[in-house]
Amino acid sequence: MRRSASTAGLISLAVALVLLTILVAGGSADDLDARLLPAIATWIRGHDGLMRIMYCATTVGDSSVRFTIAGVAALLLLVVRQRRRAFFLLIAMPGAWLTSSIFKLIVERPRPSLLPRLDVVTTHSYPSGHAWSGMVLCLALALVLRPAVPSRFRLPLLGVALFGAFLIGVSRLALAVHWPSDVLAGWIGGALWVAICARWLSPSLLALDNPASKREPLRQQGE
Description:
Residues 210-217 and 219-223 have low confidence and may be disordered. The protein has helices spanning 2-25, 30-45, 48-60, 63-79, 83-107, 129-145, 154-174, 180-201. It has a single domain (2-209), classed as Vanadium-containing Chloroperoxidase, domain 1. It starts with a helix and ends in a 22-residue tail after the last helix. The chain is 70% helix and 0% strand. With 223 residues, it is an all-alpha fold. The protein has eight helices and no strands. It is globular.
């Protein structure tokens, strides 16, 4: 049952990403994007506190920062003999960059120019690499931390991870360097990539309920 549910989730994410990519490549999302981006960015820019959060979030999504975080986490997992989970992180993060870059090269969508850009960008717009890789980083960390967290805190942990990914994606809208559909595609693609990596490298990461419901040190949960 769990395997079929995880397969259905993978298929749903893949279909959603393909359909969104077709809409964007065909220009069907342009009008809605052009209405949403100025409204979102202008509102956020009108709040200094929110903009500080946006700058912090976009920094966490920068490639140097996210690779450093993933590398440190993988090293700690190796120290506690969680080789498969460390390998999962080391595959998921570079793979996120590679897969999002492939989509950028295929779609070749120009960056928005409706508002002044508050970040330097040189690549194509679709999908948002920050949103894609940010989702991968946040979800991957949540998944590898789950075994060390009491069962009652596992759902909140996932919520925190998703909120972190949300902030990273929205920050790209506040800085006016991506269209809303770019960010949406990044979130979907990142979640899909995490699910693929987990399914391939460590299927237990996708289990809705871990049989070991009591909190245990990671080193005692060999995999």
